[in-house]
């Protein structure tokens, strides 16, 4: 496999992974209790987590290296914000950590992968 094909496979796999992250986040949101605080925190979480997939797709369509770097930076910020809201959901006892841990791990992995990609791009 040449470098171009390897890059395409990586980009496609990460596009799928960020999309799956969004879908899993939606399911997590649906599992929150129906309290007012869960609704407010949940919406914040849903906004940031859905932005991860959307901004990564935008990064893949970037018209320049500068635009790619900017979109990748936004994606990292949104993944980190999603992680923050999951920590709040856990610490506020809206959901047990066991229901959040796998998705929190995935957010952390996405942040690490994208941070490395951003560093390579700079």
UniProtKB/TrEMBL annotation:
<dbReference type="InterPro" id="IPR012657">
    <property type="entry name" value="23S_rRNA-intervening_sequence"/>
</dbReference>
<protein>
    <submittedName>
        <fullName>Four helix bundle protein</fullName>
    </submittedName>
</protein>
<dbReference type="InterPro" id="IPR036583">
    <property type="entry name" value="23S_rRNA_IVS_sf"/>
</dbReference>
<dbReference type="Pfam" id="PF05635">
    <property type="entry name" value="23S_rRNA_IVP"/>
</dbReference>
């Amino acid at each position: 496999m040449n470098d171009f094909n390897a890059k395409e496979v990586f980009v496609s796999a990460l596009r799928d992974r960020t999309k799956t992250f969004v879908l899993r986040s939606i399911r997590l949101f649906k599992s929150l209790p129906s309290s007012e605080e869960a609704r407010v925190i949940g919406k914040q979480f849903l906004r940031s987590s859905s932005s991860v997939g959307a901004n990564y797709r935008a990064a893949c369509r970037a018209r320049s290296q500068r635009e790619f770097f900017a979109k990748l930076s936004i994606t990292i910020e949104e993944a980190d914000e999603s992680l923050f809201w999951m920590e709040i959901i856990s610490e506020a006892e809206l959901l047990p950590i066991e229901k959040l841990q796998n998705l929190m791990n995935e957010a952390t992995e996405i942040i690490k992968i994208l941070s490395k990609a951003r560093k390579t791009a700079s």
